[in-house]
Structure to design on (215 residues):
């Protein structure tokens, strides 16, 4: 009887411990969700390169035969009012690479895309609609419309007046490298004749000497 009570007591204690552990796990998950949500809401805008539609690939190296998609989000600019969602939006540009960008630098698109984005928390768009891609080093840029249409066509880095997030609202940049996909050139016939003839001549000579020795 005492043994039975002891087993029941241990089972009861084990159940309490399980419930406590479960409560801690749930609380931890809730805290993580809140932290992730806060980080997303207060994060800066971003843009990334991908070769595939709808696949969140983070890719810097592209081939001329690849597709180029830009994906990311508007960060701080996508949360709260003002100014969102009224008047928000942006464009995706593929421009020649620069080591340093300064506020007001013109964005001269090289891809023929110049994709216009409506306001959205996240985006996924074809950045270079024409094929093939041109070899070179480029910057994939999300041009945020942070103060009106006058900010289109130029790279922007301005003071953040939204009241939350980083000190500056900056057009994000993603550098890409496009390399050619040309096959190895086939040597011309004239450049191959002399080496091949020399090898055949040596084989003939050694074969001739071998037969003379055997004869």
């Amino acid at each position: 009887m005492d043994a039975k009570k002891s087993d029941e007591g241990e089972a009861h204690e084990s159940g309490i411990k399980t419930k406590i552990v479960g409560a801690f796990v749930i609380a931890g998950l809730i805290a993580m969700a809140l932290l992730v949500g806060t980080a997303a809401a207060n994060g800066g805008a971003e843009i990334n390169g991908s070769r595939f539609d709808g696949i969140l690939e983070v890719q810097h190296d592209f081939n001329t035969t690849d597709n180029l998609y830009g994906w990311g989000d508007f960060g701080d600019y996508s949360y709260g009012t003002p100014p969102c969602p009224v008047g928000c939006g942006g464009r995706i540009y593929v421009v020649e690479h620069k080591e340093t960008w300064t506020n007001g630098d013109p964005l001269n698109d090289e891809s023929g895309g110049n994709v216009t984005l409506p306001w959205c928390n996240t985006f996924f768009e074809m950045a270079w609609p024409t094929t093939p891609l041109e070899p070179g080093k480029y910057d994939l840029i999300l041009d945020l419309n942070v103060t009106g249409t006058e900010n289109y066509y130029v790279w922007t880095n301005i003071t953040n007046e939204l009241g939350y997030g980083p000190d500056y609202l900056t057009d994000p940049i993603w550098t890409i490298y496009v390399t050619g996909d040309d096959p190895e050139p086939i040597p011309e016939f004239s450049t191959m004749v002399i080496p091949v003839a020399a090898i055949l001549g040596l084989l003939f000579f050694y074969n001739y000497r071998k037969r003379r020795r055997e004869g």
About this structure: The chain has two domains: 8-36, 45-179. Residues 8-36 form one domain. The chain has a mean pLDDT of 73.
